[in-house]
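Lecture 7 notes: from sequence to structure.

We start with a single chain of 217 residues. Read the sequence below before looking at the structure.
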Amino acid sequence: MLYEDIKNNKEIKEFIRKGNQNLAVMGYTDHSEEHCILVAQRAGKILDKFGYSNREVELAKVAGFMHDIGNVINRNRHGEYGAILAGEILKKQNVTLEERIIIMSAIGNHDESTGGANDPVSAALIIGDKTDVRRSRVKKTKGRFDIHDRVNYAVTDSKLKISVDKKVISLNLQIDEKICTMYEYFDIFLGRMMMCRGAAELLGGKFKLTANGCKVL
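Now the structure, written as tokens:
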């Protein structure tokens, strides 16, 4: 029940709330509890489908829910800040040292600017986080959109599919090119999608990206 305990932890929820508030002032898209729950669910599902243990699934879900708490300190290097905060919180929850280290490492390496997949939990977290591209993450009015807002808002449909037999994780997007060109989309997201490909390879699988019916990765 570690994940359920963490998801209901008032301290963690407040870190997420304040971090999201900070990012909203800076003009970022949604990084609220809704995002964190979605990432947790996707990370856990990926490891479950790929045959990892129930405990590893649980750790991936915990890392997914906590991955953005470092935004309460600063957006820059928020992964590293979040890892340190997570370690202290998990210690108070009597989580074993070994499991704390796995979760901290995943959180500390989930950002594309400084990190990368280094074990199954971190790989699942990266894919869960970077594939959360959707219109509802944009909270601004259209007149205040920047390129990140347009890219997310342009995604009219987003589906993450996991093929157990082929060990393929596929992100299928429908993009309204009247709002955002394909060039703009890949200018923002190509690095993140390449990060997902590396994470899938660490899990012994493949990552595929399809946009408007065309295979991209």
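The CA atoms of residues 154 and 177 lie 7 Å apart. Keep this in mind for problem set 3.
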